[in-house]
Please model this.
Amino acid sequence: MNRLVLILVAACALTPGPSGAAGTESLAVINSIYLGDGHPRDLVLTPDGSTLFIATFVSGDVSAGRVKIYSTARGTPVCDEIVVGGEPAGIALSPDGTSGLVTNTVDGYHATRFSAVRCRSLENIQIDSNPEAAAFSADGSLIYVTLKWASQVAIVNAKRNKTEAQVDGIKNGAGRAAATPDGRYLYVVGRSGGLFKIDMTNRVLARTIPVGGLDVAVSPDGKWVYVSGRDSGRDKENTIKIVSTADDRVTEIIKLDATPVGLASPIGGRYLFATFARENKLAVIDLVSKTAVAQVKVGRNPRRVVASPDGRYAYVANEGETNIAVVDTAGILLDPAFAAVSRAVIRLTPRTATGTNDDRMTIAVTDLEAQGVAASSAAVASDWLRDELVKTGAWRVQERKNMEKVLAEQALQQTGCTDAECAVKLGKILNVKRMVVGTLGKFEGSYVASVRLVDVETSEVVQSETAKGETIEVVEAGIRNLARLLSQPKE
Model:
């Protein structure tokens, strides 16, 4: 109750100031996700906002590139880190969130494909010049990679993992990039000036726009492009320029007191996130009043930022430190003056529809068998698994109480059911299509959770997965990731 009161008071205190000045009460850093020795270079969220993929490097060791994967709900790893090439520059996820690509600026200039579901690298892709940013096409079949020291954008075939073409004409090297939601165009910032519009269908440079900058973002409706940076003219003003995608003309210039670096798409089409790297701050730009209505200290050298799908949280990569700052925007969304925004934010639906036409498989999860751990711990771990399976939206998950009631009527129990034969027997009684069985134990000081997905009709073990961790918090994150693995189609 006290926390809610504080948030509401902060919201009422929000007052936009002149020339980008604003109070910090409406934003709050509520958590820091610590990355060990990894400095975050870039980050991206899964489409449902549940998981962060972070490209990191180790200070003093250019070869130690890693992708670290963290749950946004708990701020803990969901699986082991992925080894990639040295000095990662950019990271991108496929539209369905199942795979990704990291650009590497050393190790012979290449990019690394990885499985976002299985948390492992897939293949290195040779790219002739220093790769910078990446973006997938709308159908996920192609990956566009900007080349830092070339005048090109490379086009990579996502199935063959090979560069099959390039778009020329990006003067002075290509930098950050953002695609329109419909996948028709890619806007690329030139490292020494210029904004370049790539026609992703015809694979040609469609237009050069005289707008220089450091980062670029596209509005959720695809009508506007935002470019951050500092003008190179005599006044050297710090600005965000707004470009209309209809005619590629600058329609507005927002002047700020500090240089905006990283950008994230607007909340509900109205608020734009921007990092001030030198000032160590995150700012929220109101695109109606054309001012920074709020800002907050987040950490040293914040370069990149992403926003949750509903705009409630911002995740800031503090490159000068080894953490991600988690910023709560409730003070803005709850402000009466901006209440419409909280109703207009994007809300994602489960990837499989629910309702009267629900055609999802019904699944049941037996309690994991305890092996060297308390039975109560195994029961809790089983609930984590059930809970995350529900959240994926891929299954209709039978309630534990209903399971116990049906089995009690048959004088049966779920305890000790770990093999396919037992799973099939219980599954037929419970009238479900699939069963999940498994164990939770300890091995050489680590918790180990092992689960199997069994087809009740064929008795086939469809999938088998394992998670382990030295602490119960880490293994919890691993178990929740197992639910994601069980809910994704096989590669």
Observations:
- The first helix runs from residue 2 to 12.
